[in-house]
Design a protein that fits this description.
Number of domains: 3
Number of strands: 13
Radius of gyration: 27 Å
Largest sheet: 6 strands, antiparallel
Oligomer: single chain
Strand order of the largest sheet: 5-6-7-8-13-9
Low-confidence stretches: none
Number of helices: 13
Strand content: 15-25%
Order of helices and strands: EEEEHHHHEEEEHHEEHEHHHEEHHH
Distance between the termini: 52 Å
Length: 367
């Protein structure tokens, strides 16, 4: 039995996304360990494998290695994500390099994994995600990050992947989302929510007209999205009437209403005023049947002021089957990027490339 090896590698096989490689194994550990795999190549290499199936599992066992006296001239830890490993196995199946028995075994393996450990499978494109919600969301996040150049997050409750732009770089809207709705993949933004945003959109009719012009393409939709809220109210805490106006008509109407100072913060007395309710109905921002729900919403709240927000929802959509095909060729990410830039152009905002350049310069200035 060898008393020393040239190198010891501790492999942590897990779905973890944010671990770093910098930590070195502790070979002096006295922990009584049972590893998931130990492979030794004579005196040249010893590989110790610790695997976990869940992203919240500790990685400490892959660092505390009890070698029972075996010396290693070099040691390191490697992080291997299940999704990366299984993606490579999947590639072997698609390349057709496996024999019949191997292919059958691999098919059985992936069928079992899909049924019992779906979150561990790869999400390198939408086709490989299958119907698994978690993998789809991770793929949408990856697409959005690559398209925008900024970090994205997954909002599980909504089923969205979202990017928030760096502060002060974009005025008219502050975020974009990518999500699947029925048989469509949708990239969505919400201009004109907050005061600086709706001032940007409605103060210049050319911007509003350019925004409306997007809807000339059937892949684009411009939708009314008026709501009442209070400071820091989340989506479920707002009052949303139904959308009674076509988006372009709504935008044109709000150019006029903005200049008449209809948007913004109002004391409760003005929101309760019958004249305000009549204005909502006459302008088709709400129906008379919805006014009772406005009362119910406002009466539950202790706030003295409410905000009238003339928001717009702008979407660019793809048939989901087309999006899957485009993602497999790399086209989808480029098209998502182009769509976001098209919206930025309409609202006279900097393109993604300009934002990335500015953000990089600001980061460099800090160092």
């Amino acid at each position: 039995m060898w008393q020393a090896v040239a190198e010891l590698v501790s492999v942590f096989l897990a779905p973890h996304e944010n671990l770093v490689e910098t930590q070195q194994p502790n070979l002096a550990s006295e922990r009584r360990a049972r590893y998931d795999g130990v492979i030794q190549y004579a005196s040249r290499l010893l590989v110790v494998i610790e695997s976990k199936l869940y992203a919240n599992a500790s990685d400490q066992q892959s660092l505390d290695i009890n070698t029972k006296g075996l010396m290693a001239k070099k040691d390191r830890r490697n992080l291997v994500r299940w999704q990366v490993l299984l993606d490579r196995w999947w590639n072997l199946m698609e390349l057709g390099v496996l024999g019949p028995a191997e292919a059958e075994l691999m098919n059985d393996f992936f069928n079992n994994a899909e049924e019992n450990f779906g979150d561990l499978l790869p999400y390198t494109d939408l086709e490989r995600c299958g119907d698994n919600r978690g993998r789809r969301l991770r793929r949408l996040r990856a697409i959005l990050e690559k398209a925008t150049g900024f970090s994205a997050e997954v909002r599980d409750v909504l089923g969205h992947a979202g990017v928030k732009f760096p502060g002060s770089q974009v005025v008219a809207f502050d975020r974009v989302s990518l999500y699947i709705n029925d048989d469509q993949l949708i990239v969505s933004a919400w201009p004109a929510e907050l005061a600086p945003q709706y001032r940007r959109v409605y103060s210049d009719s050319k911007r509003a007209e350019a925004l409306n012009a997007l809807a000339d393409d059937p892949a684009w939709q411009v939708n009314a999205n008026l709501y009442l809220a209070y400071w820091r109210a989340s989506g479920p805490q707002r009052w949303y009437p139904a959308r009674h106006l076509l988006g372009p008509e709504y935008v044109k109407q709000w150019i006029e209403d903005f200049h008449e100072k209809r948007a913004g913060r109002r004391p409760r007395e003005q929101v309760d005023d019958p004249e305000f309710r009549q204005w909502l109905v006459e302008r088709k921002y709400a129906s008379s049947d919805e006014i009772d729900s406005l009362d119910e919403w406002a009466n539950k709240l202790p706030m003295d002021h409410f905000d009238i927000r003339p928001s717009i929802q702008v979407t660019r959509s793809w048939q989901f089957a087309d999006a899957v095909a485009r993602d497999s060729t790399g086209q989808l990410t480029a098209e998502v990027r182009a769509a976001i830039n098209q919206l930025l152009t309409a609202l006279d905002e900097p393109h993604l490339e300009d934002m990335q350049h500015k953000a990089a310069n600001q980061e460099a200035a800090k160092t």
